[in-house]
Amino acid sequence: MSGTTVLLAEDVHMIRGALVALLELEPDLRVVADVERGEDVLPAALLHRPDVAVLDIDLPGIDGLAAAVQLHDALPACRTLMLTSLGKPGTLRRALAAGVHGYILKDASPDELARAVRAVASGRRVIDPQLAATAWEAGPNPLTARERELLGMAAQGARAQEIAERLRLGLGTVRNHLANATAKTGGRNRIDAIRIARDNGWL
Fold it and tell me: Under a CB-based contact definition with an 8 Å cutoff, are residues 193 and 83 in contact?
């Protein structure tokens, strides 16, 4: 059977079913696999060899960006289109750095989704213009990789002492990184810094 084959990854069952149904309405698109967790993406892709993987960015387990990186390394012929419900500029930058080929909002129309899948399959890059403009205006992520790591752990509830023990760092070093991250985000405190970093897609 000819046409573009698609793997879909979305954790909400109802949304996943609706997306599969919408894509299957297109005569030239065929969904060969659908999964709900990030760690299931690569095994399904290796089994079915889809032309395009349509990935929700917020998958449980490993997220959509990490799954995209795995696909890029193990199955470079499979192109990736990310779906997101929130247009965070920092997340778009991370997606582009991960080598994804398309990035659109979940509230795009069925026609827009189908066009994006076709465009990505044909070798073009697709980015929602509103997201691209927002990312351009927002500027780059001010946090270093270490600051992102530590602030992310703090966002999950880890205290400075626990972070230091888990990463085998000095407590003072951890506190300095977290203080730097707070200052760079412009947050009033660590909780505010986490909120700002999340809102901008820096975490």
Answer: no
